[in-house]
Amino acid sequence: xxxxxxxxxxxPIAASFFSGAQQLIRRRHLRNPSSLKTHLSLxxxxxEVVSRMVSQLADRDMRLIGGKPHDLAxxxxxxxxxxxxxx
Length: 87
Description:
The chain has helices at 7-26, 36-57, and strands spanning 73-74, 80-81. By secondary structure, the protein is mostly helical. It has one domain (7-81). The protein has a two-stranded antiparallel ribbon. The longest helix has 22 residues, at 36-57.
């Protein structure tokens, strides 16, 4: 997990998101747990939530984040994939 915007705001939201994802895994309800698309969604979704929250609730001149979210998956052998054009 990496973010370069506002860790104090992002980390609690991301932790909650990943806790929910872990519950889906434990219950065996996570759709396609080993698929690339799932991993990219897990990387991107918490960023999208925080970005949307800041865009809708924070004063414009106080925003540290809120631009385009990115995702990037890197395999153990160094291959990279992205749905946002970052590979």
